[in-house]
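Problem: given the chain below (137 residues), write out its structure.
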Amino acid sequence: MARNLLHNIDVRVAIVPTDWTATTSGAIIDRNGYESIVFQINAGAETALDSSNYFTFTIQEGDDSALSDAATATKVDTVDSWDKVLNAAGETPGTYEISYYGDKRYCRLVMTETATAQCIVGAVAILGHATHGPAAS
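Solution.
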């Protein structure tokens, strides 16, 4: 069997693409069977984003499948020193990534609105480094 990237990752919806105007907690992602996860945020057309109206992204982690023990993850990384904030013209449309390298089994992406921000946003969780291959699809 030929192995390629498709057989080494699993992609799941983290935040359903919508024209968001409020804070939202994404889907809880079970990392069982995977050693790494990256959340890719896809930002579309913005209606109201500026220094006073913006969205901030964080990752919550925990050991409980319902994340009743959720805590803000500190073991995160971004590309090009992105500050995990959508707040100005020129940032949309665009894609942004946040990598989680903690050791908790469950995590989710949280998008927090400040003031009256509005933007079309969706996100996927890309799980990699499957402990057994090929990865589930």
